[in-house]
Design brief:
2 domains, Ribosomal_uL6-like_a/b-dom_sf, 4 helices, structural constituent of ribosome, rRNA binding, flat, ribosomal protein
């Protein structure tokens, strides 16, 4: 490697250096930085889709109120969107960077964010859209979940136990899963349980998140195992069976 002074002396001695034609573009054009992603940023497919409000459902957008966020020490002004229908009422909190437009004539709701380039705003755009769409469907039609009990002697029943209830009319799911005692689980408020068959449990409610959380608690008592296929299955859940272990 020649020093700058040696390179100048060599140039005066030999004259100007001529580069081969295939090296000229590499020295003339500045180095280009490689982009991490070649795709252009686009809007959220869910967030940009309008939500239709069916007849009988009322949407109320509240004023911003300062609330303390559980994930940070800051106090953030959030708005509460209330969705009321024939089956009940649900409330959804909207972050301050999100804008909600409700057209009463066409009965459609549009969600938008301040800056689509910010990752958090774009993520919450689709998330809040899914929550709002789920709430609208819940208060108008309701959500259902079916649990299937697969196993010899597995039984389920729904009973009322006035001495143990936490609120008037509370139901209790009683499971017989091969233990020495039956498993009794209180049904959360806002969820209706029934047993159309001895091996089926039907859950109905307006809040899909609470209903699936309760279904997961029931499933934990007998998680489906892959050798005999026994357990508690939620909705269309399936499991791939394994071959038996041969000693």
């Amino acid at each position: 490697m020649l020093s700058p002074s040696q390179a100048r002396a060599l140039t005066r001695t030999l004259g100007p250096v001529t580069l081969p034609s295939f090296l000229v573009p590499a020295f003339q054009s500045p180095p280009q930085t490689r982009q991490f992603s070649a795709t252009a940023s686009s809007q959220s497919k869910l967030g940009r889709t309008p939500i239709s409000i069916p007849p009988g459902v009322e949407l109320t957008i509240g004023e911003p109120k300062v609330k303390k966020d559980s994930t940070t020490w800051m106090k953030i002004a959030k708005r509460t969107v209330s969705v009321a229908g024939p089956l009940g009422k649900l409330d959804l909190e909207i972050p301050p960077f999100m804008k909600i437009d409700y057209d009463g004539a066409s009965r459609q709701v549009m969600l938008s964010v301040e800056d689509q380039e910010i990752k958090k705003q774009k993520e919450m755009w689709g998330t809040k859209w899914s929550y709002l769409n789920r709430y609208v469907r819940g208060v108008s039609e309701g959500h259902t979940t079916v649990l299937r009990l697969v196993g010899i002697g597995y039984r389920a029943a729904v009973e009322e136990r006035p001495r143990e209830e936490q609120y008037p009319g509370q139901q209790f799911v009683v499971l017989k899963l091969g233990f020495s005692h039956p498993v009794v689980m209180p049904v959360p408020e806002g969820i209706k349980a029934s047993a159309p068959q001895v091996t089926r449990i039907l859950l109905e409610g307006i809040d899909k998140e609470v209903m699936h959380e309760f279904a997961a608690k029931i499933r934990r008592w007998r998680v489906p195992e892959p050798y005999k296929g026994k357990g508690i299955f939620v909705n269309d859940e399936t499991i791939k069976l394994k071959q038996k272990k041969i000693k």
